[in-house]
Amino acid sequence: MQRIDHPLLSPSLGSHRTLTSLHFGKAGSGLKIYIQASLHAEELPGMLAAHHLRPLLEAADACGQIVGEVVLVPVSNPIGLSQRLDHKPMGRFELDSSENFNRHYPDFAKEILPKILAKLGADAASNVATVRAAMGEYLSAWTPTTELQSMRKALLSLAFDADVVLDLHCDSEAVMHFYCEESCWPQLSPIAHLMGSRAILLAKDSGGGPFDECLSGVWWRLADALKQQGLDHPLPQGCCATTIELRGELDVTHAYAKQDAQALFAYLEHLGVLQTGNRPAIPQPLCLPTPLAGSESLRAKGPGVLVFAAAPGQLLHKGDLVAEVIDTMESIAEEVRAGVDGVFYARIRDRYVTAGCEIGKIAGATPFRTGSLLGN
Ligand SMILES: [Zn+2]
């Protein structure tokens, strides 16, 4: 294993943060898999899973069982991890800019398309290499002016040429679920089922520029652009990227983390990056994929104390009671009911809500939403 420390841009005199990556195997000897944890810094199940995955990878590396490269970034957001306000962690938005740490990644396709058009040809593998080289050149030429930009650049510089990118997050209170773009499904189905995913949410451009879609989106966007220009250069999905939601923020236990690390390890065996002699069986799916545009975000109309009637993972039908919002001034209980059939896959942690507050999400099968599909 090789550890590399990447200094981030210093935002202030006397302050200097570092991003650390752990590299297993040998670059260029096979597939490259990139795994990062806790880009939303208070989402810690992935960080503990990475802690349990690391010794498994170290042991495999020492035995020469890694064919290809695995890059593990257990702490992908050192900026957010150190942010606190009123004694509470503040790891989702940078306090300086109010930007979400998992948004505003660049649209690579728009940036590199004019530079690669003349270099593409009939060979798919060399087209993939051309695109990756152009992405690398774009990143090299990018001069960040803020610490946050320098962190985004450092993360992308580690991940841009990976075949598979796994971004480990979690929701507030939730069951295991997945977000990925349609172009990466069903290629990513083995890891979804190995992790025991209870909801799989597919989209084509969720909006907002999250990390995973920056890296998966470049491929289908370029392929679409080539088709629109009447060019038939073959361009496969060079990177399959997913955001894996490892249950809820409080689901930080060694038992879960060891289970998740084992699932990640098994997926690497499945891909052939780990050649341990074991070919893991892929478990039966616990759910079918549903469109992210069919996911209902339930909201409280008025303010009050939130009392849930439904638990994460529960299968709901349209009209089922999900929660009550109690206005204790007027002694009124507002009922929030399911608007679609599906798994109630995530809910908020707070038990007091203000008017219009989102309280939970149901993975419905029929698309009905448009525009930006991700939350804040
Ligand atoms: Zn997150």
Question: Can you give a write-up of this model?
Answer:
It is a single chain. With 376 residues, the chain is an alpha+beta fold. It is built from 8 helices and 20 strands. It has a 9-stranded mixed sheet, with helices on both faces. Strands 8, 13, 15, 18 and 20 form a 5-stranded antiparallel sheet that branches. Helix 1 (45-62) packs across helix 8 (254-271). The longest helix has 18 residues, at 45-62. The structure holds zinc ion. Residues 40, 43, 102, 169 line the site of zinc ion.
Roughly how much helix do the residues carry, as a percent range? 25-40%
Overall residue-averaged pLDDT value: 97
Helix and strand pattern: EEEHEHEEHHHEEEHEHEHEEEEEEEEE
**Mass-distribution shape:** globular
Q: Tally of extended strands?
A: 20
- Please report the number of helical segments: 8
Low-confidence stretches: none
Give the distance, in angstroms, between the N- and C-terminal Cα atoms. Answer: 37 Å
Question: How many strands, what sense, and barrel or not for the largest sheet?
Answer: 9 strands, mixed
Lateral strand order in the biggest sheet:
1-2-4-3-7-11-9-10-12
What Rg do the Cα atoms give?
21 Å
Could you say which small molecules are bound to this protein?
zinc ion
Supply the helix-strand structural class. alpha+beta
